[in-house]
Structure formats: structure tokens, C-alpha cells
């Protein structure tokens, strides 16, 4: 009488065991799937990209090294082969690479001239800006564009690495010397005596002036305040893209009790 009941209990236990998660067999997929070979797609080679990166960063490294070598190395001695070669490059850049120069040459109100035209070669050697500061390391090039109608001048000057007070930055005193001469050059053209000395000079430095580049020095006579013995001049210094780097104002006078050499009109 217990036969059918035992059979039923046995089937229920089997169903309960099969319902447990751990008792289920894992599905491994078709047996023949493990025997199918899958070849992965070939990866592109990284060598072309590595060569490109090597060339780019290698070139940047060489350029940076050359620039750093130029900054830390001693400036060339005036008259040396290296100095002459650099002066030729500077003059070539002045003639062909400065939009300001091209614009001034197109303006009929401006007349271009060299500086120190009133001095002999012997006199130039004894002057600070044309003697010790000459050559590519100093004031390698100075040109003046004079506007007689407006009594103003624009001087284009190359400032060499020998004028640095801090690496890559022109010394404030050296810059002040060039500003003084640029303003005084305009003042002397205004004064009938064609000579004069600096009585007062005020400079406000607005931005760093970096060596190894061209800068323009602008100077204008204040005709309302000036007379035959005093010339009030204002000026500014701008970098190659026109950014203001310094502003200046000065008073130049003709001494009453001291005879000065007449400079003339050739700067």
C-alpha cells in the first residue's frame, strides 16, 4: 500500500534537487564551438607614429637648444667674422622684414637717415653708443625717420644681447640711454643753436624689452612749450608688433655759460 506513495515522494525530491541553482549544469554551448579557430584582426603598426613624434620633439629640442646656446653664450666681439655675419643678417631683416620701415618709406612726410652723420669715424669710437656699444652685441643698427612738418622722429633700433641686464631682457639703463639720445636728437633739430643737454628725463617702463630684436623709438617736440633755449620732448618705445614698452618725457636746454659743440642736422 506504500508503493505508489514512495514513488511519488522520490519524484518530488528529484524535482526539488533539480530546481536548486547549484545543481544546474552550466551551458557550455555547442561542443564543436571550442574547435573553431578565430583569427584576430591585425593591429596597425605603431612605428610610423613613433617616428613622427620623434621627428617633432627632436626638432623642437634642437631649436630650443640652439636658442638657449645663443642666450647663454658670450656675444660676438665687434669686428669678428661672427659679428660681421650677424650684422649682415640684421641689415637684411631691416630692409625686408619690418612692416614699419616699409610704411615709413611710403610716407612722403618722413625722410630716412643714418645716425651719427655729423661725427667722424674717430669721434664715433669715443662715444658710448657708437663705440663701446657698437657691433651686433649692442646697438647693431639705428635708423631715423624725420618728419619736419610735425617735428617728430621714429628711430628703428636693433638691441643686441650685450645690452641685457637680465637674461633676454634689455637693461633699463641701456634702454634709457637710447631713449635719451632719441629724444635729444629731436630736441636739437628744434633748437636754433643745434646743440643742447639733458636737463630732465623721466621714463616709465611699461613692458619688458627683449634683446635680439628691433624696437621703434618715437619722439615728438612739444612746440607750444618749447622755445629757442628749451625743448620739451615726449616719446615712447614700441616692440615690433606695436605694443607699448616705455613712455618718456624730457627737457633739453642750451647752457648760457658753457659753449657746446654744434651737432648739426645729420643726427
UniProtKB/TrEMBL annotation:
Q: What is this protein called?
A: Uncharacterized protein
